[in-house]
Amino acid sequence: MTVEEAREFVSDAALWPRARDFMWDFAPQIHPSWLEGLELGAPGAGSDAGDAFLASCLPSPRVKKFILSSLGIEPVFHTFPKGDWSRLLVLDGATLLEIAKWLGAIVCAAALRRVTDGASVRGLKAALGGVYPEVFGFTIYFKGLENLCGEAPGRSAEDAVSAGAAILQSLVAPLPEPLSARLKFKLPKTVFGSASARETADSVREAGTKTDFGAAMAKLLKLKFPEAYSLCC
Hints:
Layout: H1 3-10, H2 16-24, H3 48-57, H4 61-70, H5 93-107, H6 109-113, H7 118-127, H8 157-172, H9 177-180, H10 183-186, H11 195-208, H12 213-224, H13 226-232
């Protein structure tokens, strides 16, 4: 980078703090499910005691270094231009998970429409709150994507989230691997947990070779995530 480029980078009040923390203070952004089994001496991740322990120890540089090393997370540097979708990576994990839910529900919409039994419908409403069944009113904006999971299961909340996460991964896949690899650590470790979820994700990845996910992502952010749209697009 030139000095002028560096000054422009750090003067971007919306991007720079996120980029700085992503590159040099990534450990606190890792989803707690990835910290289970790292022998930090913590109670179960996700429990009140476990969350309190992590909150108390994460400020330690030694703990952060241990976490990154244990998970194989390598150092990165990137200037996060608008054109390569790298700015998705600096969004917080909760926002990324909501984006994955929406993307997945859109591409699995045809399968989700076939879910009619009461218990399953209630389960989808609980797991995809604010997304299902609202997503059916948005598929008109995403013509050709509502059956992208093809013959894959695609009928559970887990399948939908995995499909959405696969789209996120496909968008950042062209980036250097140490950079793109950080995405999964911002999402729950169970995102690709079940066999049906993996099958659905693989089906979406395969279809993605012929699909412009970038256009769909930009449209979704503009409709549902205006702050992320402003940053990324």
